[in-house]
Amino acid sequence: MLRGRSLSVTSLSGFPQWEADKLPVEDLLLFEVSWEVTNKVGGICTVIQTKAKTTADEWGENYFLIGPHFEHNMKTQVEPCEPLNAAVRRAMDAMNKHGCQVRFGRWLIEGSPYVVLFDIGYSAWNLDRWKGDFWEACSVGIPHHDREANDMLIFGSLTAWFLKEVTDHADGQHVIAHFHEWQAGTGLILSRARKLPIATIFTTHATLLGRYLCAANADFYNHLDKFNIDKEAGERQIYHRYCMERASVHCAHVFTTVSEITAIEAEHMLKRKPDVVTPNGLNVKKFSAVHEFQNLHAMYKARIQDFVRGHFYGHLDFDLEKTLFLFIAGRYEFSNKGADIFLESLSRLNFLLRLSYFLISHQMHKSNITVVVFFIMPAKTNNFNVETLKGQAVRKQLWDTVHSMKEKFGKKLYDALLRGEIPDMNNILDRDDLTIMKRAIFSTQRQSLPPVTTHNMIDDSTDPILSTIRRLGLFNSRSDRVKIILHPEFLSSTSPLLPMDYEEFVRGCHLGVFPSYYEPWGYTPAECTVMGIPSVTTNLSGFGCFVQEHVADPTAYGIYIVDRRFCSPDDSCNQLTQFLYGFCKQSRRQRIIQRNRTERLSDLLDWRYLGRFYQHARHLTLSRAFPDNFHMELMSLPMTDGFKYPRPSSVPPSPLGSQASSPQSSDVEDENEDERYDEEEEAERDRLNIKSPFYLSHVPHGKKKLHGEYKN
């Protein structure tokens, strides 16, 4: 036994920091339980996948993931193997002998963690008995018509059974079980009800009721302490799910959530203050060439430009080299994801850009900016839009025509030069060539406007995005400087329309816009940051709060944070419009500087740093579950970790700080910009800053919750 092992925390320069005394992983078994292990449903799968390598490096053979078994996922993502750990092997054998089907293997992702997968359908015959066990454990009944909740009960019952078998054969090893979201929570409830000797952690990535209330346009953050929780859950017919979630929270030794804003929400919705905030990270890969990500941006931008050429054929009266590509992506939650405020701000941006274009054209200048905005939000469709497919076909046909003519011209030019002659350009082009070119020009003409959607929408008349586009009049007319393209399908490199993976598409864009009202963390702006693409987020997203805490001037680093918490909807919309207009006013040099700074923030989001918050949660749960074997010397830690990226000192201090009064052309530089910007000096200072220790922390006790926020 590990009597009295000290999990000590000391103070360094006034801030607490973990010592080198790490957990004795050789004496521990760590199980992470989630419905999204090898089964991508949402963002939790991204959390587990990206964190797996860091955790596997630390825990080695003593780290296991538990999830559901689906044959199609097993065949494509898991390499079957036999468990080396005796306790896990005996637990699987015992369950398989009693009519279960438990699979084991390595998940084929970075880190190759072990996975234990339960076949839910194979054990469904136990459902009625397990419903009775669950009622006895926590007095929560699950209706027969809720298929998802019934599946979660089967999954949780199998998990609790497995953990009991493991602890029976653990041979002195202590077990930590980390449960993600209410779907895995039944296993936690049953484990605690049966008094299994395990240390438990429960992480909520978003509260059930919070998501429902925000989707219903409730004045959520302004009434957090006023909601009748039981009534609201009952009216939405999710009371049993809410009870499962709340029971999981209160049964866990340690309760964590992913952001400060969600911690405040959880305290009101689930009636327990989180013990630790565990921000979500990513696996950050640095290129050997410092500016390789800039080269990738140029390469993938060219591919997006090709798509735009086809989509806007016949109306391509704007310069693609002076066109900015913006996008929003995620689940189709019109209000929660901020698509409503984004469309409204695009209408206002269109007015400002049209006004600037009018003034520029009357001054006889040629420079103007056009903005093409992509909405990548999956919705119900029945096929590609015929007009969109035709546009890509016209573009490809024109490209083939030009290439054939180029070869013909090249041969004539080659022969003339071999003869020592300067070719007569009138002879280079004959009548047939002119006819072919005229036919090509005629083929690019069309009477209709470019479509605002790439697919045929099933609910076209009631679709929120299309309805708002109609109301605002953003129909991609020639005079519009903001063009809209709704792509209601996830991106894929095999698509005949826009053959790009999501990562490639993001790298080719100039700005990601995610003005979410409800976003417990927000992986989309975090992914943009890691790829060196500026983004817009809000102070109601976990990522936005995290950046505000750690970066002195987020805008200078390409993170625009819209205030949706303390401003009225109209003020928030105006602020977003100003951010977008300010971005359009940047010169190409300013955008390059900003992308360099954005990419340097990726170290802040690396699991090698953020994984320490999970380490802290494991220390804490061991000290609570096994106080005789583990104890912590310091339990009260501040929320902030004492680290903050400084405001860049070089010019431009913020791209908004040195802009022209009207949008810049992409190839025009601001003559007033001097050479005080030192890329290497800034990068070195940021590298030194990120090496500063991260300080692990609890949620602040006694901190006042600020209300009076407006629903945006």
From TrEMBL:
It is an enzyme of class 2 (transferase). Residues 656-666 have a biased composition (Polar residues). Residues 667-683 have a biased composition (Acidic residues). Pathway: Glycan biosynthesis; glycogen biosynthesis. Residues 645-712 are annotated as: Disordered. Glycogen synthase participates in the glycogen biosynthetic process along with glycogenin and glycogen branching enzyme. Extends the primer composed of a few glucose units formed by glycogenin by adding new glucose units to it. In this context, glycogen synthase transfers the glycosyl residue from UDP-Glc to the non-reducing end of alpha-1,4-glucan. Transfers the glycosyl residue from UDP-Glc to the non-reducing end of alpha-1,4-glucan. This is Glycogen [starch] synthase. It comes from Heterocephalus glaber (Naked mole rat).
